[in-house]
Amino acid sequence: MKRLRALVIILGSATIFxxxxxxxxxxxxxxxxxxSQEAVRVDRxxxxxxxxxxxxxxLVMCSLIYSLSAxxxxxxxxxxxxxxxxxxxxxxxxxxxxxxxLTLGLAGFGSYELKHILADQKHADMEIQVNASxxxxxxxxxxxxxxxxxxxxxxxxxxxxxxxxxxxxxSFWVPEFRLKQDVLPNRVTQMVITPTVKGxxxxxxxxxxxxxHTIMTAQVHVVDDETYAKQxxxxxxx
Amino acid sequence: MNLGLVRGIxxxxxxxxxxxxxxxxxxxxxGSATIAYVVSLVVYLAVGGGWAAFQRWLNGTxxxxxxxxxxxFDFTTDHKVVGIQYLCAAFFLFFYAGILAxxxxxxxxxxxxxxxxxxxxNTLVGMHGIGMVIVALTAIIxxxxxxxxxxQIGAKDMAFPRLNALSFWLVPPAALILIAALFNxxxxxxxxxxxxxxxxxxxGKLFFLLAFATAGFSSVFGAINLLVTIIRMRAKGLTFWRxxxxxxxxxxxxxxxxxxxxxxxxxLFLVIFDRVLGTSFFDATRGGSALLYQHLFWFYSxxxxxxxxxxxxxxxxxxxxxxxxxxxxxxRWVVVxxxxxxxxxxxxxxxxxxTSGMWALLNFPFMxxxxxxxxxxxxxxxxxxxxxxxxxxxxxxxxxxxASIVANFMIGGLTGIFLADVPTDxxxxxxLFVTAHFHFTIVGAAIFALFxxxxxxxxxxxxxTMNAKWGMVHFWSFFASFNATFIPMFWTGSxxxxxxxxxxxxxxxxxxxxxxxxxxxxFLATLIFxxxxxxSMRKGAAxxxxxxxxxxxxxxxxxxxxxxxxxxxxxxxxxxxTRVV
Lengths: 238, 581
Description:
The complex is a heterodimer of chains A (238) and B (581). Chain A contains 4 helices and 10 strands; from the N terminus they run αααββββββββββα. Chain A has 238 residues and is of the alpha+beta class. In chain A, the strands form 2 sheets. Chain A has a 5-stranded mixed beta sheet with strand order 3-2-1-5-8, with no helix packed on it. A 5-stranded mixed beta sheet of chain A has the order 4-10-9-6-7. In chain A, helix 1 runs antiparallel to helix 2 (37-70) and helix 2 (37-70) runs antiparallel to helix 3. The mean pLDDT of chain A is 93. Chain B has 17 helices and no strands. Chains A and B meet through helix 2, helix 3, strand 7 and strand 9 of A and helix 4, helix 11, helix 12, helix 13 and helix 14 of B.
């Protein structure tokens, strides 16, 4: 009876705790605006992990807190119940089995999403070159043979970004697009992005690159096709 | 003052300055600084007492017994003295790196530039990082490991007492040259020193690399010593399955140190060669590789987090049974898990490189191995939960610090899954989310365990009782302010705040102010601890011989233990956990 009561208390409080955390994360989402197709995939992976982590966290915390309150004793001579392993050794076996299955399941889920992200990177509608150097970004648009200090992206077009660095490591990251790719000095890296929401975003160098790393940012404008074309026809931009 | 340490440092600094200014007229500055550092290291060791100890060894004379506080400043081979030296050095570095963090948090309290510029900020990031890494690597292993491993296995001393002294003595010069780096242009590459950024720039970077390499040597010497001690010096009857769990954790983490540290040393040396000898291992403009450094670096530095965490786990599991008054739950499973962590930790490093541009297919195996490591880690925490289950728990500061490791590491471990998963890591990598994650794992396991161990063993060190009421105040204030500081960082990180930046957009100013204030409360909580230690050392009541009724061998000795530990070699007939005395 005592054991059953403990189990009910722990499971019940863990359920309430999970629901509370679930409400918290729905009311205050952990992720910023998702402004690209790739972001949807990343967010799905994030939410999958989040909904799985919440009950695990709640269960462990509730049994920890329950133990601290239920088995507290002020008697210095009193001794706890002496067992070195669970009866029939089922707790440790179950724990090992469940954690193995969960872990491999998570790895499978992650591999599945990653496979699709990588497959999405194979084809693109257009290319833009990104040149990083301490501490600025420069964008070359091959179709228009134009350099610009800001990144213009036509909405709903799959764009391949060809990333090059002139000096040290940098990293290309627009939080609203989610994906991140380091920029290396001696080899070309690339990423494919499909912006879906028109607006202005900020590109941030996210690999520590020296003195002015903090302000190594650039404006990113996701615009419709017309506005995009206009950038290259209306006189010299710089 | 004729103290070995003072004498050695004075001679070392003098040798460094003389050589550096003498050579720099003929050689490049960095070359002369490197030569001057290596030579002055030898001079410091020799003058500080190393030569005398070496002579005693050659002549076959006994080590003299030094008494009183001055032995803590001498080249001493007593493992208990070396342990205290390590602990003091670690707490000194802990405060130093902590204050650097407070300066950063002051700058970050409001958007825009407050008190320091970008260059100072970058330097503080790197110095805080490497300082705390050295604390987490040395405090428990060097401090408690040296003091208590020989006692817990019934040995007179470590297997190689002189090597033990040497491994501690390499820490002060590493700390000194690290501080010197502050005044020589600083560093702008965090604590990871990624090439090619680290192959160019001011001399402070060279000093940083030399300090890191020195600490690495110290770490390897310590690991060899602890492993040999555990394998060869055990008391009669103390079989593998009767070893205290703390000894197992020190053995496992020493094995990782031995496997991995030489790799990071090689990467540091190659960077130093690039700077000093004009080689081009990493300098891309001259044909070097930009990715090689990251592989070499993380081949050590990911296992290194388990070098920090395993002794924390071991201490947690050593302390919980004592205060829950019952045997350790699934002891053998935990030991096997420790060794599974040792093996797995060496094949996960490239999860730091998911965004680096390495071959995309490599992402899959490293994602899987990284997530697998949560299985043995989970067993460790099942053991903690099972140990307090149906116990008779005495709530003390030591117990609370140990039990809260479960709470901290749940957050640290679960958020680790988000970073091990490639799709989410592509977003979270190099953000404050990562910073929050590793503070929950490293502070949450290693530093909480350090405090737990300190409350647990204080009566053993000093023979006095530590004030428990202030200990509770310390615990609750530290635990609360620690969580208040780092939980919001998960949110700021996923919302676009990068790591290692000195400024941010205005919409985050509220939460940033909150984090900065909480960080100052961490400092206050640590001050409470410091004052409590100093007061209890002077005024604490005499402690009973075995105040917690623990079952391990160190509690069979008087407190503090005599110089040669055991009068007669002890004989062990049972595991410390099968029956709590």
